[in-house]
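Team,

Forwarding the record for the chain on the shared tracking sheet. I've put the sequence and predicted structure together so nobody has to dig through attachments.
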Amino acid sequence: MAGATTAQRGTSDRSGRGGKKRPGPSKPPKPPKSSKGSGPRGPGGARARRVPVLASLAAAALLAGGGAWALYGSSWLRVERVTASGTEVLTPEQVLTAAAVPVGAPLVSVDTDEIASSLRGRLPRIDSVDVVRSWPHGIGLKVTERKPVLLIKKEAEFVEVDATGVRFDTVGRAPAGVPVLELAAEHSPSARRFDEQRLLREAVGIAGSLPAAIAKETLQVKVRSYDSVLLQLTKGRTVVWGSGELGEAKGRALTALLKAAPKADHFDVSVPTAPAVSGS
């Protein structure tokens, strides 16, 4: 029994705590820690990243400086040519002289708004003007002139009035197809209520609302009161227009009457829904 016990204990010693331990799986060695200041995260890497950034900024500064020099300092983009278009009564030379565009100045420095404002002030006939840069050396002036719809006789001359009531020029000869205003409202009962300026606005509104074909045949707009306006047409024809209200309807009615009764000499469209004609 003692021998058996001894044999078991010996076996236990070899496989238990008394025996040698079997080696386990080995762990891979840890890489050495990089020392401070080396590798891509250190000062050397930051400097390497700053170099292309600084180079890009320098290139941008050079480009900006070069662009500014090309626009303002060089002779490449300067005003060499100024043109005017759109004139009818005015001449291109009048527009160019009034504009006074600085030839030889850098094209980018030309104040287009100032030139447009100056032109309208010096030449009231100009209603609007577009001042356009035409790169690399040109300035274009596209003008739109005012159109007279009514004339005010002033001694031997005529004052032109546009559709907005602006008196923009005085001419020695009446333009063809533009009626002359005759104010005869001194003794009108409504003279105190409707002064000359108000009656002028009414006359301008009436003249501006006339169909083009009728406007060309209208010689005179005679205002006797606010609601008593007569038109004198060619061939001795007269038209009772009434007030300035319902201008488009009256124009349509008069157009129909002129076609229906071409030999008539008196027309009444003061009530456009019930027009009348006589003398045919």
